[in-house]
């Protein structure tokens, strides 16, 4: 038994050493990168930067935003899919990136369901259907009636082919049984400019983009693509109030890791995000931009990605939408 | 007198020690990134955006906008001294600005560029203060049919004015059009000429093409010519412009201001189109167009005024309607969002101190830039005596950093090198790069708007002649072609648009 004592000491020392090592290796021990698939300045960047700043505080390491715009978010998605799942590469994922693009774009080098580990959904933004202030149309029903009377005569502008703006417009067409001419633009600013100038009859874009124009009386909001009204635009009816109950199409931003991230890591980040999402200043920060703070479990987020992907896939097939 | 009351609010907001300081920081930084090739205001503002969290909204916007118009001043410096667009909108300034520098007149060119920028800046700020709202409304009436006709006029003018070998000019314009097609087609969503590379799906950026074809190609060609000797600049000569220079420059400055201001307000506008338009107009109406490309001061005064006027008026759609018309304005809108201000039509009424403070600060900023740039002329000119072995590696380094910073993409840096080699080939073949850039800029806009106009008219081509503004522009196109057929003009056409 004489040997055992030193052995015990050795074991204890080893255990201590391992513990110390584990301490040194506690995540995160260096700066973390948050990939944002859009250039600085837009809604995605605003959400990404806010969460990066808050996560820096709660994780105790700087979280640096890396803007990787391009190919309608595909460049960022491919980069993240190839990154190590060690928690030092996080990604802001968008609805378009994980649920629309994979249904439309051939030769995409990432699989939205296989290549990422979902952590949590962070925020969502509904869309608005709006017409110029001078338009004779005041309600969604009036728009539908007019479109039925003259099929294909009315046009709507979107922020681009295969974007959420475009597919929300297609969803509106399907649900209401009307035909509108789709006119794509390079982003939201020219699409809204076209409606303000009367070049196009209807705008379909996010609450963030259209609310200021509606508040200023330049455009009239006909319907919000959500189950509830928004405090930002109390006068604009929700989908069911406007008589189109299925017209619920929100864009969202979520946090994902590359595939194969450890459950502990996902748990740790999920808890950190839950704390940020519940802080009152978070909701306040985004309220005036029409962005609602959301929060979900990792499993809940995975289900959202799968469900939305299936739903947009249907809209795309029904509308025979292709990028060709 | 409402305007005076508004300017009073603006003066009060802009003339605080804090805001003046941020204005100075902004324009100084802007001058710096303008001078450094490749590194432009978009990347700089993007990098500084998070820092503005801690500032007041007015100070943040004042500083960030100072970077944008400050870069318009700084960009001409590199263009004149080393034939490299420091900022993409100063591409045109290379043509005659650098020719002046080779004749030992770099000082005069730099001074005229700064003075022209200041005059254009001051006048377009007045325009911004007096008529921002009505101008924004007019810009809304400018639909796809008008846009197409305007771009057609630009392209026709480029060909009419093409000099020397017309065939080469047409070929270069067509090559430019093809380069412009690379990427995702807005109307159908199809990817064209991307070879399955996602990095090409948003097209080739103007920074990549202009840095490659002007910057890197110029460096290769110079190495071949000089074998490591200092640049062949004659004497530095007088630093300040002569009376004759002023006499030649004031009209181009005013015309450039007008063109730049108008093209800046249009959706998608900015500083660049105005500079090209101004150069073409000056060359067209000059009594001796053959002087252009040989160091004509009009070719510096006009475009430099136009790009600064365009930079100022491109604020109009963003400030009045909340709709950013280019990447810099999208960042400014982002800066407002960071501070909890929703960019939109209500900003002028709800935050008058912000709107008017920004406008007054722009004028202060322009004045600071003039004061900053004129004494710097002497120092900049001395930069020309730096040996190539020191100057060129640093320029190449800054080019790479600048190009990388646009999209954080290594691919773009490699592409720039490829365009550098292509540009060197053009120099060997004596092909002028200016028509290529014009084709690249105008081609995609023309196509996008042609197809959108046809989509909206349900395939009826008469839309281009039934809208009065579009019809007027098309009549101008016909006149331009008609002029080419008149023998007297044809004789001068040989010398137009020549650069060498």
TrEMBL record, chain B:
Q: Where is the DUF112 domain?
A: 20-438
Which keywords annotate this record?
A: Membrane, Transmembrane, Transmembrane helix
The record's listing under InterPro entries reads: DUF112_TM
User: Any idea what this protein is called?
Assistant: TctA family transporter
Where does this protein come from, organism-wise? Pseudomonas putida
**Entry annotated with the keyword Transmembrane helix:** yes
The superkingdom listed in its UniProt entry is Bacteria
Which sequence ranges are marked TM in the entry?
20-39, 45-69, 108-133, 145-161, 166-183, 203-221, 257-281, 315-342, 354-380, 386-403, 410-427, 464-486
């Amino acid at each position: 038994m004489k040997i055992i004592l030193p052995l015990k000491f050795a074991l204890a020392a080893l255990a201590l050493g391992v513990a110390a090592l584990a301490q040194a290796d506690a995540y995160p021990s260096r700066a973390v990168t948050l990939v944002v698939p859009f250039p600085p300045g837009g809604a995605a960047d605003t959400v990404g930067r806010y969460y990066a700043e808050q996560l820096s505080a709660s994780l105790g390491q700087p979280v640096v935003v890396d803007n990787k715009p391009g190919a309608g978010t595909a460049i960022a998605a491919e980069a993240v899919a190839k990154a190590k799942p060690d928690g030092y590469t996080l990604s802001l994922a968008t609805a378009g990136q994980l649920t629309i693009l994979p249904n439309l774009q051939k030769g995409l080098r990432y699989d939205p369901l296989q290549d990422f580990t979902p952590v949590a959904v962070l925020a969502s933004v509904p869309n608005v259907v709006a017409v110029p202030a001078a338009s004779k149309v005041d309600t969604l029903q009036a728009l539908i009636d007019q479109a039925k009377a003259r099929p294909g005569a009315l046009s709507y502008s979107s922020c681009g082919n295969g974007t959420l703006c475009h597919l929300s417009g297609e969803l509106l067409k399907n649900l209401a049984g009307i035909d509108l001419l789709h006119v794509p633009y390079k982003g939201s600013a020219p699409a809204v400019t076209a409606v303000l100038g009367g070049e196009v009859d209807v705008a379909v874009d996010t609450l963030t983009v259209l609310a200021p124009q509606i508040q200023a009386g330049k455009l009239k909001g006909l319907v919000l693509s959500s189950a509830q009204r928004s405090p930002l635009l109390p006068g604009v009816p929700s989908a069911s109030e406007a008589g189109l109950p299925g017209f619920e199409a929100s864009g969202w931003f979520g946090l994902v890791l590359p595939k194969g991230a450890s459950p502990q890591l996902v748990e740790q980040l999920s808890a950190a995000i839950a704390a940020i999402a519940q802080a009152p200043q978070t909701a306040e920060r985004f309220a005036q931009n029409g962005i609602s703070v959301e929060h979900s479990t990792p499993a809940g987020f995975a289900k959202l990605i799968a469900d939305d992907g299936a739903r947009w896939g249907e809209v795309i097939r029904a509308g025979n939408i292709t990028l060709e | 007198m409402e305007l005076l009351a508004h300017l009073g609010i603006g003066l009060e907001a802009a003339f605080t020690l804090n805001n003046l300081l941020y204005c100075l920081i902004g324009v100084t930084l802007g001058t710096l990134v303008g001078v450094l090739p490749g590194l432009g205001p978009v990347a700089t503002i993007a990098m500084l955006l998070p820092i503005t969290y801690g500032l007041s909204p007015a100070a943040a916007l004042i500083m960030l906008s100072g970077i944008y118009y400050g870069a318009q001043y700084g960009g001409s410096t590199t263009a004149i001294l080393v034939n490299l667009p420091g900022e993409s909108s100063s591409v045109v300034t290379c043509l005659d600005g650098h020719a002046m520098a080779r004749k030992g007149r770099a000082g005069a060119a730099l001074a005229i560029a700064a003075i022209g920028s200041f005059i254009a800046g001051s006048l377009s700020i007045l325009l911004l203060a007096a008529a921002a709202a009505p101008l924004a409304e007019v810009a809304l009436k400018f639909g796809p049919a008008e846009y197409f006709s305007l771009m057609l006029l630009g392209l026709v003018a480029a060909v009419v004015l093409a000099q020397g070998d017309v065939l080469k000019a047409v070929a270069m314009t067509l090559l430019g059009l093809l380069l412009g097609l690379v990427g995702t087609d807005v109307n159908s969503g199809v990817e064209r000429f991307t070879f399955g590379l996602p990095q090409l799906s948003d097209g080739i950026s103007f920074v990549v093409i202009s840095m490659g074809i002007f910057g890197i190609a110029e460096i290769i060609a110079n190495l071949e010519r000089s074998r490591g000797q200092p640049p062949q600049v004659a004497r530095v000569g007088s630093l300040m412009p002569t009376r004759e220079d002023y006499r030649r420059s004031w009209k181009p400055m005013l015309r450039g201001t007008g063109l730049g201001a108008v093209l800046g307000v249009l959706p998608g506008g900015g500083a660049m189109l105005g500079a090209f338009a101004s150069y073409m107009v000056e060359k067209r109406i000059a009594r001796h167009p053959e002087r252009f490309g040989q160091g004509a001061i009009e070719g510096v005064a006009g475009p430099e005024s136009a790009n600064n006027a365009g930079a100022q008026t491109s604020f109009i759609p963003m400030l009045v309607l909340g709709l950013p018309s280019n990447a810099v304005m999208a960042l400014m809108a982002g800066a407002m969002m960071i501070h909890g201000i929703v960019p939109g039509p209500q900003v002028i009424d709800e935050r008058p101190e912000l709107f008017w403070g920004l406008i007054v600060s722009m004028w202060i900023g322009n004045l600071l830039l003039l004061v900053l740039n004129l004494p710097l002329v002497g120092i900049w000119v001395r930069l020309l005596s730096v040996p190539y072995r020191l100057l060129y590696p640093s320029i190449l380094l800054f080019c790479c950093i600048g190009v990388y910073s646009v999209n954080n993409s290594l691919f773009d840096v490699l592409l720039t090198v490829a365009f550098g080699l292509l540009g060197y080939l053009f120099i060997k073949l004596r092909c002028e790069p200016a028509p290529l850039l014009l084709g690249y800029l105008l081609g995609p806009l023309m196509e996008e708007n042609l197809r959108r106009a046809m989509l909206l008219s349900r395939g009826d081509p008469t839309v281009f002649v039934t809208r009065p503004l579009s019809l007027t522009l098309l009549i101008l196109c016909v006149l331009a072609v008609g002029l080419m057929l008149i023998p007297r003009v044809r004789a001068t056409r040989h010398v137009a648009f020549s650069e060498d």
